[in-house]
Design goal:
Length: 299
Amino acid sequence: MSLSLLWIPATLVAAAAQTARNIMQRRLTETIGTVGTTQVRFLYGFPFALLFLILIAALTGERPPRPDKGFTIFILLGAVTQILATALMLAAMRERSFGVVTAILKTEPVQVALFGVAVLGDPLSPMGALAIGTATAGVIVMSFPDVGDLTRSGLRPIHYGVAAGAGFALAATGIRGAILALDAGSFLIRATTTLAWSLGLQTAILLAWLAVLDRAALIGSLRVWRSSLGAGFLGAFASQFWFIGFSLTTAANVRTLALIEVVMAQAVSHRLLTYKATKRELFGMTLIVVGVALLMAYT
């Protein structure tokens, strides 16, 4: 396979691992809450990221490249927005179907394109604008609640989901920017170095936050270390392949192909969480897929 196409299998592997990690994190929220579960992803993923970096450095004979000012700015953007997005995602999943929340999060490719214009100066074609409109219509059709949903939780989980998608879009932009800012090494060592820095920063930020403001959540995340190790590994494993994808092509391309996660999440919801999507939700998901496919084809 051509190196230029390696981002495709990398993205598919990342999407599968992320689906498994999300379902594990969703279950942990019932035990240690949203903030504690957010910490699990980073605290227990960081050692695996370091292990990945050690193994890849040993296998390739390359040394991890040194970060510069540009890398630092981008990695801080990616690290902080990913923390916020993860917390919002878990909050949304506590109030609505796993599969539907995952689909709402898939507005991310559209938002990645918008942030590309605002942050990186990437052009947006008329067909790209059409793609954004189509995907946004899909989100509205799919996620607008029934009367019963309004009574129980209203629009709050939808707002959380869209905001989380924006956070993940900013994180993807920051991560790709950080990888590109490293001017030495192969795509693999640059992606893995960025992963280690990202998870290290995120772990430090959340440890400090929880130690000062929510020690109960911190202690809770440490008590469930056995069940958290699996979520940490899957999170680091998924991120490793996301970062490989970002090192080889645009974040919009990677996140667009990642829509396969919507199908995976629906399968998980149906088999494990006994949730069945409505026709309206399925139609909305179809519009999202069409919109993001147009985005990838015409931008």
